[in-house]
Amino acid sequence: MNCQTFREYCTLNPTYRKQAFLRHKQACSACADFADEMMLFEQTLVEAMKIEIPAGLTERILHRQTIPSADDQRLPTPVGSDERKTGHLFKFLKRYTPSQLASQWFHYSIYALAASLVLAIGLLVGSLWWQSHVLQQQVIAYIENEPHAFLMNDEVPPDEVRAMFQAIGAKLTSDIGPVNFCNLLTIQDYASAHIVLTGTKGPINVLFIRDSQLTGYHTFSHGKLKSIIFSATWGNLAIVGVPEEPLEKIAVRLNEAVIWL
Predict the structure, then answer these.
(1) Which of 85, 154, 198, 236 could form a disulfide with 209 if both were Cys (CB 3.0 to 4.6 A apart)?
(2) How far is CA 12 from the centre of its chain?
(3) How far apart, in whole angstroms, are the C-alpha atoms of residue 52 and residue 193?
(4) Which distant-in-sequence residues (6+ apart) come within 8 Å of 171 by Cβ?
């Protein structure tokens, strides 16, 4: 694992525990410092989200602002900028009854809750986007490093294809068509299989990435190629080909043709 890949994983999840990640952290002091910073940020964020409004604070504020005490009457008129702001707040609050203020406070609480939900959803969507982006880049990088796979015209013997799937704990249950290339690889430390099929418009690259945990259905483009990555019960399936190919149908057919042991 190189520094760039390490930092991508660390930004996504500073508690990542894969062996390649941990070995790089131990060997590279700069990346170890980066991981410590990400962990500190993660802890700070968690602590910030734990802050709760003290019980009864709303009632105490409303009571305090609507019923002046004897001490308030003896205090001099505020003259500083902060005191003037506080005085304006007192005047504003005194325009309303406690029930009106409570109603206003309730509405503001609803708005705050809605804003928190929007923020949480935004963080979740951003996290999923980053995960899909990292996996997409690794899939494309691997395919670009195997240019000879596009040039293979001879069909791989079926026994060799079955042996490859067996090596990653899978089994073919139906014919998937002629396979022109097959290879075992590792993506994100996950045992994976790469096959190349002959489509109607050109070669189709398919990667079976076992135990990968990207959820949902993702499409992206890279130059003249279109790619699909979607989640299955066993991991992720990535398929790359020209946009004219029916990649969605091919992906579904391949997913149904493989069972995992």
Answers:
(1) 236
(2) 7
(3) 49
(4) 162, 165, 258, 259, 260, 261
Per residue in 161-204, pLDDT (tens digit) is 999 999 888 898 888 989 988 888 887 777 888 899 988 888 88
140-260 CATH: 3.30.200
One-letter identity of residue 88:
H
Q: Which of 11, 220, 20 is nearest to 126 (CA)?
A: 11
Mean pLDDT, the chain, as a whole number?
72
Are 13 and 7 a contacting pair, CB within 8 Å? no
Low-confidence ranges of the chain (pLDDT < 70): 45-136, 140, 142, 144-152, 213
Could you state, in order of their start, the residue ranges of all structural domains in the chain? 140-260
Residue range 111-143, pLDDT digits in tens: 454 444 444 444 344 444 445 556 667 776 767
Residue 177: CB atoms within 10 Å: 15
* DSSP three-state, residue 21: helix
